[in-house]
Task: structure prediction
Amino acid sequence: MIEKETHMTEQEIQNLIDRAIVAREKTYSPYSHFGVGAAILCEDGTIYEGCNIENASYGLSNCAERTAIFKAVSEGHTNFKALAVVADTEGPCAPCGACRQVMGEFNIPIIIMRNMKGNIKVVSIEALLPFSFSSNDVIDR
Ligand code: THU
Result:
Protein backbone atom coordinates (compact mmCIF):
# COMPACT_ATOMS: atom_id res chain seq x y z
CA MET A 1 0.00 0.00 0.00
CA ILE A 2 2.71 2.51 1.04
CA GLU A 3 4.89 1.17 -1.78
CA LYS A 4 2.20 1.88 -4.38
CA GLU A 5 1.60 5.47 -3.24
CA THR A 6 5.25 6.42 -2.90
CA HIS A 7 6.88 4.48 -5.75
CA MET A 8 9.46 3.43 -3.15
CA THR A 9 10.22 -0.09 -2.02
CA GLU A 10 9.52 -1.13 1.55
CA GLN A 11 13.28 -1.51 1.96
CA GLU A 12 13.97 2.03 0.69
CA ILE A 13 11.43 3.43 3.14
CA GLN A 14 12.80 1.40 6.06
CA ASN A 15 16.36 2.35 5.21
CA LEU A 16 15.51 6.06 5.14
CA ILE A 17 13.78 5.75 8.51
CA ASP A 18 16.79 3.90 9.95
CA ARG A 19 19.09 6.71 8.79
CA ALA A 20 16.80 9.31 10.41
CA ILE A 21 16.95 7.34 13.67
CA VAL A 22 20.76 7.32 13.51
CA ALA A 23 20.76 11.07 12.74
CA ARG A 24 18.63 11.75 15.82
CA GLU A 25 21.43 10.43 18.03
CA LYS A 26 23.51 13.45 16.97
CA THR A 27 20.91 15.98 18.14
CA TYR A 28 22.27 19.15 19.72
CA SER A 29 19.26 20.10 21.83
CA PRO A 30 20.45 21.19 25.30
CA TYR A 31 17.51 23.63 25.65
CA SER A 32 14.48 21.63 24.56
CA HIS A 33 15.92 18.15 25.21
CA PHE A 34 13.83 17.14 22.22
CA GLY A 35 15.88 15.22 19.69
CA VAL A 36 14.81 15.06 16.06
CA GLY A 37 16.41 13.12 13.22
CA ALA A 38 15.84 13.35 9.49
CA ALA A 39 17.16 11.71 6.35
CA ILE A 40 16.68 12.81 2.77
CA LEU A 41 16.86 10.53 -0.27
CA CYS A 42 18.25 12.15 -3.40
CA GLU A 43 17.17 11.11 -6.88
CA ASP A 44 20.54 9.39 -7.45
CA GLY A 45 20.16 7.32 -4.28
CA THR A 46 22.43 9.39 -2.03
CA ILE A 47 21.12 9.89 1.51
CA TYR A 48 21.94 12.83 3.79
CA GLU A 49 21.16 12.79 7.50
CA GLY A 50 20.31 15.76 9.68
CA CYS A 51 19.57 16.49 13.33
CA ASN A 52 18.16 19.54 15.09
CA ILE A 53 20.81 22.02 16.18
CA GLU A 54 19.78 24.49 18.88
CA ASN A 55 21.30 27.76 20.01
CA ALA A 56 21.35 29.78 23.24
CA SER A 57 19.61 32.41 21.14
CA TYR A 58 16.66 30.04 20.72
CA GLY A 59 15.31 31.46 17.48
CA LEU A 60 18.50 30.51 15.66
CA SER A 61 17.86 26.80 16.18
CA ASN A 62 17.69 24.68 13.05
CA CYS A 63 15.33 21.76 12.60
CA ALA A 64 16.54 18.29 11.63
CA GLU A 65 14.69 18.37 8.32
CA ARG A 66 16.31 21.61 7.20
CA THR A 67 19.73 20.40 8.32
CA ALA A 68 19.34 17.34 6.07
CA ILE A 69 17.97 19.36 3.14
CA PHE A 70 20.67 22.03 3.38
CA LYS A 71 23.41 19.42 3.60
CA ALA A 72 22.12 17.79 0.41
CA VAL A 73 21.64 21.05 -1.50
CA SER A 74 25.06 22.31 -0.45
CA GLU A 75 26.55 19.17 -1.96
CA GLY A 76 24.87 19.84 -5.29
CA HIS A 77 21.62 17.86 -5.03
CA THR A 78 18.33 19.49 -5.99
CA ASN A 79 16.20 16.48 -7.01
CA PHE A 80 14.76 14.40 -4.22
CA LYS A 81 12.61 11.32 -3.74
CA ALA A 82 11.65 11.49 -0.07
CA LEU A 83 12.46 12.73 3.42
CA ALA A 84 11.96 10.86 6.70
CA VAL A 85 11.66 12.55 10.09
CA VAL A 86 11.61 10.88 13.51
CA ALA A 87 11.16 12.10 17.08
CA ASP A 88 9.72 10.87 20.37
CA THR A 89 6.25 12.26 19.75
CA GLU A 90 2.87 10.78 20.62
CA GLY A 91 1.99 10.21 16.96
CA PRO A 92 4.22 10.32 13.86
CA CYS A 93 6.38 13.47 14.08
CA ALA A 94 4.95 16.26 11.91
CA PRO A 95 7.38 18.80 10.40
CA CYS A 96 7.07 22.44 11.45
CA GLY A 97 5.76 25.08 9.06
CA ALA A 98 9.20 26.47 8.20
CA CYS A 99 10.45 23.03 7.20
CA ARG A 100 7.35 22.42 5.09
CA GLN A 101 8.09 25.60 3.16
CA VAL A 102 11.69 24.48 2.53
CA MET A 103 10.48 21.00 1.51
CA GLY A 104 8.13 22.72 -0.93
CA GLU A 105 10.97 24.76 -2.44
CA PHE A 106 12.70 21.56 -3.50
CA ASN A 107 9.53 19.62 -4.34
CA ILE A 108 10.33 16.75 -2.00
CA PRO A 109 7.37 14.62 -3.03
CA ILE A 110 7.09 12.17 -0.14
CA ILE A 111 7.39 12.89 3.58
CA ILE A 112 7.68 9.91 5.95
CA MET A 113 6.82 10.82 9.53
CA ARG A 114 7.57 8.45 12.37
CA ASN A 115 7.79 8.37 16.14
CA MET A 116 10.00 6.24 18.36
CA LYS A 117 7.16 3.77 18.96
CA GLY A 118 7.16 2.93 15.28
CA ASN A 119 3.98 4.74 14.23
CA ILE A 120 4.35 5.87 10.63
CA LYS A 121 2.46 8.30 8.42
CA VAL A 122 3.41 8.92 4.79
CA VAL A 123 2.13 12.06 3.10
CA SER A 124 2.67 14.12 -0.04
CA ILE A 125 4.11 17.63 0.09
CA GLU A 126 0.80 18.91 -1.32
CA ALA A 127 -1.03 17.46 1.67
CA LEU A 128 1.49 18.98 4.09
CA LEU A 129 1.57 22.41 2.51
CA PRO A 130 -1.56 23.31 0.52
CA PHE A 131 -1.95 26.72 -1.17
CA SER A 132 1.76 27.38 -0.76
CA PHE A 133 3.79 30.41 -1.75
CA SER A 134 6.34 29.16 -4.28
CA SER A 135 8.85 30.09 -6.98
CA ASN A 136 5.91 30.53 -9.40
CA ASP A 137 4.91 33.58 -7.40
CA VAL A 138 8.24 35.39 -7.68
CA ILE A 139 9.98 34.26 -10.86
CA ASP A 140 9.78 36.27 -14.12
CA ARG A 141 9.16 39.68 -12.62
N1 THU B 1 12.23 20.43 15.60
C1 THU B 1 12.72 19.79 14.51
O1 THU B 1 13.92 19.51 14.41
N2 THU B 1 11.85 19.44 13.53
C2 THU B 1 10.50 19.68 13.56
O2 THU B 1 9.81 19.43 12.61
C3 THU B 1 9.90 20.23 14.78
C4 THU B 1 10.85 20.82 15.76
C5 THU B 1 13.17 20.79 16.67
C6 THU B 1 13.42 22.27 16.84
C7 THU B 1 13.86 22.32 18.28
O3 THU B 1 15.24 22.04 18.33
C8 THU B 1 13.11 21.17 18.95
O4 THU B 1 12.67 20.32 17.90
C9 THU B 1 11.93 21.60 19.78
O5 THU B 1 11.05 22.39 19.06
